[in-house]
Amino acid sequence: MSALDAAGFVLALLGWVLIGVCLGVDQWRVSTLDGSVITTSTIYENLWKSCASDSTGVYNCRDFLSLFGLSDYIRASQALMIISILLGFFAGITSLFGLKCTLLGNTEPTVKSKVATAGGILFIIAALCAMVPVSWYAFNVTVQFYDLTYLGTKYELGPGLYIGWAGASLELIGGICLCCSCRTAKDVRGSYTYTYRTARSPQPGEVTKKWNSEPDNASNYGKNAYV
């Protein structure tokens, strides 16, 4: 089971790193080129800022000035992504103590299993906290794109969303692998095998020896007494 624990920890840790990368990528949504013949600028946004670049490669970014001026799903996505990063950090530390291949903390198999399971549960919650805002953000971008009554700038899914999906999936798989290590661990206290043989009755004509401190019969004892 140590190989499964280690594989789950590596996958979950890699997923947590990808979620951190996703949080810093500027292109969560990119302005669409659908229906445009000449494009002079491209607009792309993430949860924190909006950027624009022209055909010469010059770009300019501006942070969102007001938190309350943003949409509700964007504010909720910001909170969930931060929670996901924090939970993944604590899950990594917890899982490190629960790996069977490490000598950190308590080395009893039962305790190791419980600690690894706790870390796996934290990784799963962190993955869900990242999966929800990424999917929610992508859903709103898709709805606005196909909404014929929407007159604002239409966007398409950016690479940041795909990185977020990949990171959340790896973190979820890694957390499940860590939870699979929660099996009833039995303390090994040394087991000994005893072989019992039933007494065999002597066969007819078989000579048996009798090891006893008492005299075999009274006649021999009498002879020895009068010598």
Shape: elongated
Mean pLDDT reading = 77
Sheet of most strands: 5 strands, antiparallel
Q: Find the CATH topology of the domain at 3-26 and 67-151 and 159-185.
A: Butyryl-CoA Dehydrogenase, subunit A, domain 3
Using only CA atoms, what is the Rg? Answer: 36 Å
Oligomeric state as shown:
single chain
Structural class computed from helices and strand pairing: alpha+beta
Q: What is the chain-wise order of helices and strands?
A: HEEEEHHEHH
Number of helices: 5
Query: Span between N and C termini?
Result: 78 Å
CATH architecture of the domain at 3-26 and 67-151 and 159-185: Up-down Bundle
Q: Going across the biggest sheet, name each strand in turn.
A: 4-3-2-1-5
Total count of strands: 5
